[in-house]
Give the backbone structure.
Amino acid sequence: MAAHKYWRALALTAATPATLEISEFHLYNGATRVDAAATLTASAAPSGALANLKDDNTGTGCYWASGGESVVLTWTFPTPQNVDGIVVGARTTIARWPTALQLHGGDVTTGTGPSPEYIEHQCYGLGRFVSATKTGILRPLPGNAHKPLKTKDLLICPGIGRIPFEVVREVLPRTDPKTYLPQAATVRLERDIDGKVIRQVWSPTGVGAFEFVDENFTYTVTAIYPETGMRAVIADRIKPQGHPEFVE
């Protein structure tokens, strides 16, 4: 793992994706907790102070009643810091507990504020829900701490586009309203103009993003489930974040 000035947690998808609630979120380097030196911010304000995630008290926390699946937590360190483990605390409602997340590290900002160009991705499984309890120190899932692939296409056609994805499966027996859980899958990105496969990744958590794609094209994303009895799910004509909009 490399040291980075900025770290962010995202894709914290709970069983009820719109909601999210956690009591703690600590960053570790080996056995040493390191997040005390960082400034913690969130892409959306929660109910409960962000400081609750650092106070080592599972009796307090942060709750997002909507948009929980899109929440991004960002730690800004004064100097680059290595992070190779996390501790996450639950509150008391299982439907708001994320079973997995991604942690990204980076060093260069674009624009204003903490919007780094992230170069290291780590995927974590958080395990089963235990009310008002912290996990032990979790390490990245094997094979999922990496830098983006430098494919030939990426080198020829770099861009600023980003296409996030989330693969889920419906909880059975069915509920009303329906509930979903993250689903591991092979996720493939194809360019619509010529059908070329640009990227393909295995996502054990079902969440992730294709970064630095050419923003001037539209794409098709295909999620291929590991179980042979489940058909692939396809979403087409996807515009990347950063896609130009033409106004007459």
Q: What stands out?
A: Confidence is low (pLDDT under 50) at residues 110-115, 143-157. Residues 152-156 form the longest helix (5 residues). The two ends are 48 Å apart (CA to CA). The chain is about 0% helix and 45% strand.
